[in-house]
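Lab notebook: predicted structure, single chain.

Context: the supervisor wants predicted structures on file for every construct in the current expression panel, including those that have not yet been purified. This is the next one on the list. No modifications to the sequence; it matches the entry in the shared construct table.
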Amino acid sequence: MNIKELRRSNLQLLIKEYGNRQQLSNATNVDYAQLSQWLLPESNPSHRNIRDSSARRLEEITGKPKYWLDTDHKKETVIAVFDDEIPEGVIAIPEYSISFSAGNGKTTDIQEIDNSYPAYYRKDWFVKEKINPKKCRRFRVSGDSNDPYICDGNVILVNLAETNIIDGNFYAIRYGDDLRVKKLSKKIDGSVVLDSVNPHYPQEIISPVNLNELFQVIGRVRDKSGM
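Prediction complete. Output recorded below exactly as produced.
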């Protein structure tokens, strides 16, 4: 699959995540007609390729890592939950009893859930992404501020080792006594901007004065599962 086909295939994944083409258009402000032209087969005279600049912009808006549209994700997703023998080349990541609110947030302790099934990820995915699986935790999300990208009840994979903010990525954070999942970016003056996908939730800005006392990055969201 060449880069043009990969981007078109991954655009279809994005549309599925957001529900449909119109919802993706509404959430990203990318023109519906342009999305339609990107999805047309190359043999159609109205077809348009997704250019590099458009791919990077779409990744940033949707909170995807840079070059996400250029990657074959069939090799990167969670495999399954196994009841019996665990295949080679997979790594178990347990779920922890914490609900990172995508809404107003709530405080709770982080501890592994007893007698729960872990999810299994491909080892080669961690190697490719240069992630230490021992630093990863799975958490269930509550709230709708990132709907439809991260929905109420979804489970997110968080890399606790990634606490440096890369603009446009999603992070699990502590803000005061609240635990949240937000898209973060930094301003020139050192302020941190908290954005939500759901337009009903306003942008929040934490000033440099309040960062040390009120704010902590727990880890970067690297994967999510669920409807």
